[in-house]
Design brief:
Blueprint lengths: L14 H25 L8 E5 L6 H8 L12 H8 L5 E9 L3 E8 L2 E6 L5 E5 L4 E3 L12 E2 L7 H12 L8 E6 L8 E6 L4 E5 H17 L3 E5 L3 E5 L5 H4 L7
Parallel strand pairs: 1-3, 4-7, 7-8, 10-11
Antiparallel strand pairs: 2-3, 4-5, 5-6, 8-9, 9-10, 11-12
Helix pairs in contact: 4-5
């Protein structure tokens, strides 16, 4: 007799795996739905842009350069991109961007230090920054009286930027007596300048030597009478009023 074949029974699949897959699919759909609703809501958009730290640069200029606008996507622009855009402004030294959810972006800028001032051709007062940038001083801002005034300088003179960089390296206490700086180039010293001080000294030096010679300048100012100081390859001092030999004579001595 032929053997009868017993049919193989199918294994029952655990219902737990199917339920778990359904839960995962539903959870993913829920997350996608929340994401869609979030990015379409006002919470995902920029509600306020705050800019602080700027003195000479207009807030409107910084806002335009940042590329940010209220109502745009909060996560649409990276912090690094905003910083990179703002640092293209020559007056700006450092930038920090702080995103505060929901919707607030705080931008803090720091401009280069003011090293001097100059009068524009239209009579407006301009601040010269350490970067060499010249910006109009708003009427609401006070002027630092210890900074020198640049006169007779052309706007496109490359020495002005080098002078600004040199002044930025000198401590404030060593430049407080300098009242005016004028270009005074010669064939031997193309970057020569003439300076006048509040203590009535006239100073001849060069842009490249200024930072190294300024300590000698202050030593002479503190110990000598007003005169002409030359600080080039050699340092010399000549008083405007020569010493009177009679002043050095002893009392009662015959002439």
């Amino acid at each position: 007799m032929p053997k009868s074949q017993i049919p193989v029974l199918k294994k029952n699949r655990p219902k737990g795996n199917t339920s778990r897959k359904i839960v995962i699919i539903l959870l993913l759909l829920f997350i996608v739905l929340l994401a869609v609703l979030f990015f379409r809501s006002s919470m995902s958009r920029i509600s306020a842009i705050e800019i602080t730290g700027n003195v000479y640069t207009a807030t409107s200029e910084l806002l335009e350069k940042s590329g940010l606008k209220e109502g745009e996507q909060f996560f649409g622009t990276s912090t690094a991109e905003v910083i990179e855009r703002l640092k293209t402004i020559k007056a700006i030294s450092t930038v920090t961007v702080d995103k505060q959810f929901p919707g607030i972006i705080h931008i803090k800028v720091q401009e280069y230090a003011t090293v001097a001032y100059e009068l524009g051709s239209d009579g407006t007062l301009k601040a010269i920054l350490a970067s060499g940038t010249s910006l109009t001083v708003p009427a609401t801002i006070g002027v630092a009286v210890e900074k020198p005034i640049l006169t007779q300088w052309k706007d496109d003179d490359p020495l002005k930027a080098k002078l600004s960089q040199a002044l930025a390296k000198i401590p404030n206490e060593l430049t407080t007596d300098i009242s005016e700086i004028i270009p005074n180039p010669t064939p031997s010293f193309p970057d020569q300048i003439r300076m006048y001080t509040k203590s009535q000294f006239e100073v001849i030096t060069t842009v490249s030597l200024l930072s190294d010679k300024v300590e000698y300048l202050n030593q002479v100012i503190e110990t000598e009478r007003p005169g002409k100081i030359t600080m080039l390859e050699a340092d010399t001092y000549v008083p405007f009023i020569p010493d009177d030999p009679e002043d050095d004579a002893e009392p009662g001595a015959s002439p």
